[in-house]
Amino acid sequence: MSPRNGRERMASAQDLPPQEALQTLGSELLAIHEESYGRSAAKVSVHVSDDAVVVFLDGIDFHPSERFLIDNGQGETVLRTRAAYQEAIQTTFEAAVERATGRRVVSFTSATKLDPPWSVEVFRLAPAE
């Protein structure tokens, strides 16, 4: 990101949340995921770089109804439903990231893959003040 009118600046290493905050964020996002879908993931990892937070949820455990659809050639239905749900619950995920980073989330996207089962949540952050 380039400064505009001297008001914005790139985040430095000191602006990034401490590792403990990232572990807490990972646990919180995993808990939200489990509460939301009724299923969990085997592993969560959180990565922060300047103005982005990227969260990987590996080993997603699909709900039995989702697994049935996937096994019967309806995986795209599961992906569309999960994408719609992620859009609906977006503010809950964003609030967790904002608490952990102390920065506002300005954009969010999510994607899920079926084989192997994993998802990624990407949060773009407002410039550090």
Structural write-up:
The protein is α+β, with helices and mostly antiparallel strands and 129 residues long. The chain has one domain. It has four helices and four strands; from the N terminus they run H-E-E-H-H-H-E-E. A four-stranded antiparallel beta sheet has the order 1-2-4-3. Strand 1 and strand 2 form a beta hairpin. The radius of gyration is 16 Å and the shape is elongated.
The arrangement of helices and strands along the chain is HEEHHHEE
Instruction: Flag low-confidence runs.
Output: 1-14
Quickly count the domains: 1
Q: Averaging pLDDT over every residue, what do you get?
A: 86
Biggest sheet, spatial arrangement of strands: 1-2-4-3
Helix content: 40-55%
From the N-terminal CA to the C-terminal CA, the straight-line distance is 14 Å
Structural class label: alpha+beta
What percentage of the residues does DSSP assign to strands (E)?
A: 25-35%
Number of helices: 4
Largest sheet: 4 strands, antiparallel
The whole-angstrom Rg is 16 Å
Short description:
Residues 1-14 have low confidence and may be disordered. The protein is α+β, with helices and mostly antiparallel strands.
Question: What are the key terms here?
Answer:
129 residues, elongated, 4-stranded antiparallel β-sheet, 27% strand, alpha+beta, 4 helices, disordered N terminus, 4 strands
